[in-house]
Target: Amidohydrolase-related domain-containing protein
Amino acid sequence: MNSPWPVAMIDPHIHQWDPYTTPRHTTRKARLFRPLPQIPRALRWTAPRSDREFIGHPHHAMKPYLPSDYQRDAGQLPVTSVVHIEAAWQASGHLGGVGETRWVAALPFGQDGFPQLGAIVVHADPRWEDAGDVLDAHIAVSPLVRGVRFSASNHPDPAVRDFCSRPGVLCDPSFLRGFAALADRNLSFEMWLYSHQLPDAVVLAREYPQTTFVLDHYATPVGLFGPRGSHTGTTVRDRSSLFAQWRDDIAALAQLPNVVAKHSGLGMPLLGGDPRRPIDVAQLPKVVDRSAPLIRHLHDSFGSDRTMWASNYPIDKPVHTIAASARVLLEVLGGDAHPQKLFHDVAERTYGAVSGPEQQ
Model:
């Protein structure tokens, strides 16, 4: 039976962490519970609602997630290269985040059968006066630094977790001016925001037409699959309106040729729904039914030359397996999927991510 996958796959969106030895939001609790054989299930209810609805159960965020863990989760998928996306490294000072780049670059990717580290996307805030110096420091640590992510996610529902204190930061004059530090270094920009912020993304991407912008996680339409926060996605009418606005705004963003998009984040609890255990390939109809409108519209808007699969692991781990995240795209797109582009070529072009053993 022929494999549906390319000979080599690139996963352009993974996170690595070790809360025991590196500075993370969960480090204090992780160290406290480390002697226990497993994280108590009841711990979930000690976290704020906004955190629970972002991460699901915190147990996987409180334990290390390293190359060996990713390899095990990828299973039989021929993933030969990954792109590491910054994962909220907690360190003082703007240069503190360089420690994450140094740490990721030293992980045993490419050894013992693990995928290669194809590229690194770092954290920086274009509003920093020293943003250029910070980026140069990251690049000096590793030549694999290819892009920047600044999480602009800010939601009007106070019970939905914010990752940025300002709702319109992408249009802020200081952000737009400072963004030149990224553009001058030919770095891509990873956009993770909530769906109502998509018009802001249009403003930014239009301002810098020579920069490649990468839209993460379908712009996370919070509550699309079920209620979230205090009043988001509460009714069928609310969810229908949310989808209609998302659809129009995605189409508008896709008009800009310097924007590409990831089929990723379909397992993020923020979308709504609360499966009791991760969905695997055998349960694909559940994923297809709820995800098909997002998948199809993103594909139809951006086309196969500007869309790529990504696992978003381990953030999506509580909801579905890596194999399910890839297979659902084939199920929904059928003959339009173009697997070589979807699982390899677009990521390789976007990040310059080498996907074979020739990488050093």
